[in-house]
Specification:
Distance between the termini: 41 Å
Number of helices: 6
CATH class of the largest domain: Mainly Alpha
Strand content: 15-25%
Strand order of the largest sheet: 4-3-5
CATH superfamily of the largest domain: Winged helix-like DNA-binding domain superfamily/Winged helix DNA-binding domain
Number of strands: 5
Bound molecules: zinc ion
CATH architecture of the largest domain: Orthogonal Bundle
CATH topology of the largest domain: Arc Repressor Mutant, subunit A
């Protein structure tokens, strides 16, 4: 957890933005679930259970700020809802396998895949700021159920 909060500090250990109790609560909710792909509604209900009374709009507003600061990733994994996860390490990369039947989301860490994307972009003189890759299909369990 400390490493996450250290992300929001500059080398002089001065906070680069105010780590308000609201932002801290949201980050904690994302951390508690093992950094896993929560919707705004998921965060809202997680916080409600902990007795934190933050409205959906407030959570959403803070997520935008956290995303701009590179602390939170906003993901479109289908299902008509954006999901959010903490950026665990700066410049780390994983992609998502999303089951279209049960909604299971698997994470795959693949530095080689990331390097290929980066070098392709570089060859096209394109400067990347976020790489997001989603693969849809059916998980093992759901294939067996068909
Ligand atoms: Zn499935
Ligand atoms: Zn993920």
């Amino acid at each position: 957890m400390e490493s996450i909060f250290s992300l929001v500090k500059n080398p002089d250990s001065k906070p680069v933005f105010r780590l308000t109790p609201q932002r801290k609560a949201i980050m904690r909710a994302l951390w508690d679930k093992g950094n896993k792909h929560l919707t705004v509604e998921d965060i809202h209900s997680a916080l409600s259970k902990q007795g934190e009374k933050l409205g959906i709009a407030t959570i959403y507003r803070n997520l935008i700020t956290l995303e701009q600061l590179g602390i939170v990733n906003k993901l479109d994994l289908g299902g008509g809802r954006f999901r959010y996860e903490l950026v665990s390490r700066p410049n780390s990369f994983h992609y998502h396998l999303v089951c279209q039947k049960c909604g299971e989301i698997m994470e795959v860490e693949d530095p080689i895949c990331y390097q290929i994307i980066q070098s392709t972009a570089q060859n096209l003189c394109f400067q990347t700021n976020q790489v997001e890759l989603t693969v849809t299909g059916y998980c093992k369990k759901c294939q067996e159920a068909i």
